[in-house]
Design goal:
The chain is built from 2 helices and 6 strands. It is of the alpha+beta class and about 130 residues long. It has a single domain (about 5-129), classed as Nuclear Transport Factor 2, Chain: A, CATH 3.10.450. Strand 1 (about 40-50) and strand 2 form a beta hairpin. The termini are far apart.
Length: about 130
């Protein structure tokens, strides 16, 4: 029989590890290290954006991240809030971008849900403000 306190503590530790995984993933995007994103993503990762676009597979998602980062002269993700429930990590974020070189930085608000399976991102749903 599993001790209920042990089960609660283990669940909390797992949720914290999921949050740390997502924090590290977004930090790597902020410092433009797209090649380092690969181990965070499952082979069959699914990405969907609020625009309706969808991607499947690690190479497609990493390439999309690279294209986003390369499009902007300035890019960064600041976490406003992060929380987790079961295997889902919920992120409210502020994305800093400058659309053109020399342009004024803009802040866009976003919300994302990351579903974690075996300590990798299996699903990433992104809503942009």
């Amino acid at each position: 029989m599993v001790d209920p306190l042990h089960e609660i503590a283990y669940g909390g530790i797992a949720r914290m590890e999921h949050e740390l995984l997502v924090r590290d993933f977004l930090e790597l995007m902020s410092v433009k290290e797209c090649g380092a994103l690969e181990p965070f993503l499952r082979d069959d990762v699914r990405y969907s954006a609020s625009t309706g676009s969808q991607l499947v597979g690690r190479p497609a998602v990493v390439e999309m991240c690279r294209e986003i980062i390369d499009t902007f002269a300035v890019f960064g993700v600041d976490l406003v809030r992060i929380s987790s429930v079961d295997n889902a990590v919920l992120v409210e974020e502020r994305v800093l971008v400058a659309i053109e070189p020399g342009g004024e930085p803009q802040h866009l608000m976003g919300f994302a849900v990351f579903e974690i399976v075996d300590m990798q991102i299996a699903v990433w749903r992104q809503l942009h403000g």
